[in-house]
Input
Amino acid sequence: MQVENENKPVSRKKFVLWSAGALAVLTAARFFFRPGSKKEKTTTVKMLTQDGKLVEVEVSNLPTKRKKVTVDQIQNWVQKKTSSKI
Output
């Protein structure tokens, strides 16, 4: 009673094929089964537009150099809507 397949060496061709197949499956799984969608957490700042609307702007869109604004510039910057009602 001898078992013929007990110490049979694996051929190099089978080893390479199985390794390539496992690598392909792992690569495909990485692209198809991503854990959730990658949503980068962006920080936003609420700012007032010239016509008086409040909008949210991403911090990455703001310039890094900032300059001071005078009170007169702020008062003249917002355009007031004129109403035609009498």
User: Anything to note?
Assistant: DSSP finds two helices and two strands in the chain.
